[in-house]
Design goal:
With about 400 residues, the chain is mainly alpha-helical. It has a domain at about 60-340. It contains 14 helices and five strands. A hairpin with a 2-residue loop joins strand 1 and strand 2. This is Inner membrane protein YbhN.
Amino acid sequence: MVNHGVVLKRPTGTIRAWLISPKPAANATGRWPDATFPLLAFLPLPKKRIRKYAGPVLAIALFALAVRLLIREAHQITWDEFVRGLTGVPASQIVIAAFLIALNYGLLIAYDILALRYVARSLPLRRIALVSIAGFSLGNNLGTLLAAAPIRFRFYSQWGLPPGQIVALISVVGLTFWSGWWFLGGMVLIWVPIQLPPDVTLPFATQTLGVVLISLAILYSLVCFLWRKPWPIGELHLRPPRPGLMFVQASVAAVDLLISATALYLVLPGDSVVPFAQVLAAYLVAIGVAMMTQVPGGLGVLEVILLTLLKGTVGDTVLASVLIFRVLYYWLPLLAGMIALVGYEIFSGAVAAREATGIVIDPQRAADPAAMVGSAHSVDSGHGADSGGSGDQEILLPEFQDDNRPTGS
């Protein structure tokens, strides 16, 4: 009994499977017949199934745990304290917080602009704004896998981007957030350590977490400066962003986090005395953990962490402030994003119907076959221009490399 390494050829890669079996006889071409390996088809199934279900199961378990902890903390807050927290926030501060959140969602468009820059594609700003705002507003509430990624796939594929570039684009959008979180979170947690409640114990101090985050940020910077070879990630080969793009990524994400933390600070009760740096540090920890758990919208996770880290300084009224922030930052943009999507679909359908009707029933064009041909060509040309025009042509990508792209012309 000996081991034989077998490489299974697939359209996009290979799988090496090791079997313990008698050595089969090679045919005239020197290859082993496929019939001698009937178990190969079953080898990838366990890992695929584990990867497929492990994430959702873990997210559900963490969500249930967060809800349980949140309910336990909420039982310690009286109804009068909760109402005082809701009514204790000045209306002017809520309006300013809502304005900052609207400004923040406008800044989120830069995430997609940078990702398109990475894959060397260009689209009109109005389209980038649509897919970015819709993707973030729905993704922040429903999760990346359920909303943000499908929305980007749907629109970017419609506008001429191939699947490989869309996957790379989505990866860069996520990397932009994490790069800013590493830089800003590392600096804040090192200089502003969080005072944990007595009943909360961690195996390491928050300053240690800050050192870890800033180390990741430095490592990411070094990779972008020194490493130019593509890394195999799934079926793609992606190069690290260039240093200039990396610095812009971290800056955009850091400003994004600062604005959202400021909005949270503004909806705290007016009589609370807490430094902004402490609210910022608590928010960075909460949003980072919420993103890592993959619970849609960080629902429950964000609330229980902020409540735990801020109730010692703000008081029990912080729960009401966190709920106000949830409404302003998550639920109202969700409504706006859904309205934008519905409006775009209605407008696109009306335009398509108008163009189709104009081609079919125009009597003057119907009487002139040459005019009909010209009309069809003009519609096709308009559709191509609508899909991105010259910016959507296949060009050499400085950052991105797709296995399916031909290596030579």
